[in-house]
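Quick start: read one record
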Amino acid sequence: MKNILNEETIMKFQRFIAPAPDHISIISRDYRYLVVNDTYLAAHGREREEIVGRTVADLLGEDIFLRIKGYLDSALSGEVVNFSAWIDFAGIGRRYMNVVYYPFIGEDGEVSGIVVNSRDLTELREAQERLRESEEKYRHLFEHLNDAAMLADAGTGIILDTNKKGEELLGRTRDEIIGMHQSNIHPRGGEEDYRGRFARHVAKGKLADYVGEVERKDGTIVPVHISAEALALGDKRLILGIFRDMTEARRLEAEMLKSQKLESIGLLAGGIAHEFNNVLTGIYGNISLAKMMLSPAGRPYEAVSRAEAATLRAGDLTKQLLTFSRGGTPVKRAVSIKDAVREWCFLASRGSQAKCEYDIEEDLRYAHIDEGQIGQAVRNLVLNAIEAMGGGGIVRVTARNEDALDHALPPREGGYVSVSIGDEGRGIPEEDLQRIFDPFFTTKEKGSGLGLAAAYSIVKAHEGHLTVRSAPGSGSVFRMCLPAVLKPKDEAEDKGGQGQCGKRILLMDDEEMIRELAGEMLPMLGYEVEVSKDGDEAVLKYTKAKEEGKPFDLIILDLTVPGGTGGKEALRRLNDIDPGVRAIVSSGYSNDPIMADYGSYGLKGVIAKPFDIKSLREAVRSALSDN
């Protein structure tokens, strides 16, 4: 076919396309360059005479020519071909080009060549890449936030997007959430309030920060902390809302508040417990002496026994109060609770119409506990179960070895032992579950509100965990988890038999009533006794007796002497005088570590107030027998 581009036409086109910013060239049907503009020349780094007249294969290479020949032929057949690609240029390096092949149609209506227009889109491409990367980063950040995130239209309040945490928070799928109005994710009845908040935040155009609630698909209300911020993406005005689930934080706040309540009552209990136990010791001890002097067959003996039982109940109440005070430090040792659990439950249920049924693991681990305190906690839980059933029914007692405890307690070597107390009562209303362990909280007409609170505090002091599971009409199950230990080596149960008559004992106590009581009890047990009112006097008497060759075989020290020298300081001074001194401390529990770890202080034992003659005999005999 005749080439219609004569020299005059070529020059006309040359002048026309010369200043164009795009790369423009005209190619003949035999693939030769007829016209190229200045931009094209600069990109290839060549002079015009090096290009015009040469073929595409000559300029770009045979391989590239074969790859684009199909496009060239399509344009020669009358089609417009459009494609984009990265192209390497000798003059300007690697660029991203949009290339269009136009068929050049002559006056006769036939295609006589190809007009090639290449536009440099590198900056646009790179901007698109940056935008894409930015969007991917945003999407990744949005999706992987630890909190629920929702994006809403600022004008309509319609939710446009949410992340996985948003689905979890609302209990809905992404498709269900997108399209909802932002106010409809909140509890029913409060939509208008949240619409108003939303509008105010939009108007302010700045970060909003407040506490609210959202409603899940199943109707559950979840407390949330909401942060909302206005955003502008292009011409769109949006609101980004971040919703942090406050359920766990609220639970921790409740635990902290509960601890603060326990501490508050502890201050009260600690202030009166020492004096109250001193009084109870005088009453209880004298009653035990009176019983020894009475015939068991007479009515006076029965009356004294009833008074003794009442005093023991008062002592139990004091111990519950002391549990909350800083004087509740447990004196722990390795204890096999397999049989002890049955005994504790039997004592608690004795006299009621309730029956305890047991499911206790055969190889139950040893627990690291203060046996007296945990026994009190179990009895409190059993009594609570019996009261919940109106005095009768089945109390189901289960004891198990535990390793994982629903993340409530950290994993530990040796694991845990759990004791569960279940009842067949009417259950605990949901609104009371959060307060069930609060001091003085009770739903019973005659309840003190201390039983469950005491059990909770005891278990907490043992680095354990006490939980409750209940539903109206389905009864309740209280689960106590305690640290376990390896089984201790076998020890002799009795190291020394009976206390020897004639042993000399020095007792120090600031209460005259207790000094008088001990002055009667100890001689009845076969011991010689002297008393002192404080640590200073005790040290003087002990020193004098040693110098006179009539040393004391044992000293009983009251740990706390208000306004005077107590047992701890007295023991330090006695150890300087006589490193072999034998001593035990007497107290109604104290926060001092000496009570929980008396052996580390060189003591031979402890005796808790209030005590009777039997408790005193056992403590003295054990201390004198300990070699």
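The first strand starts at residue 23 and ends at 28.
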